[in-house]
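Before any further analysis, backbone shapes were mapped to integers, which produced the following:

***
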Amino acid sequence: MEPVSVVIVDDHPAIVDGVRAWCAAAAPPITVVAWGHEPAVAVSGAGAAADVVLFDLQLETGVLAFDAVGRLVAGGRRVVVYSQAADDATVLRCLETGVSTYLTKAEGREHLIPAVHAAARDLPYVSPALGGVMAGDRRADRPVLSDREREVLLAWFESDSKNLVAARFGLSVKTIDTYIARVRIKYADVGRPASTKAALVARALQDGLVDLGDL
């Protein structure tokens, strides 16, 4: 597995120290390149080059920092939200923003380490808290997918490679790309864009197109 680096945006020193210790003890280790209590630490110095941004929504201002998360995601960063907030509205708003995944601080090391590794590889990670929120979110604005679009989507979720998906269905990689692009367009058309694989997994879980057992 390739080395992974992370920058921590959190205003609780005990949390920062704990996460740094977990990362150092991980196998393979995760390198914490910078940490601080303001979002700026993720966009300057060593933090700007980190593979993953671990972000606490509730910083010193007391206002949930959705805008800062949105700017990071828009800038192409992989963001894992790690927050005390566990309400459905907050979690879903972060997913809509395009974060890689959402963890509550109650979930701890058991989920934080694999979530960071997954985010660094642009793979989905669904913690128990996130799974519960997504399973309960049934929206009226879900797109209608064809059976083949759904099959290709699930096969892609189960695999790291579109080449493997193409071989499974006897199709070209270009055709697989077309199916996935079509699904993205359908989500964008209903106002729920999914620009990353993790976001597309979240959409599919929210809409009941797949369930946690499938993954």
Remarks:
- The mean pLDDT is 86.
- The chain has two domains: 4-135, 147-206.
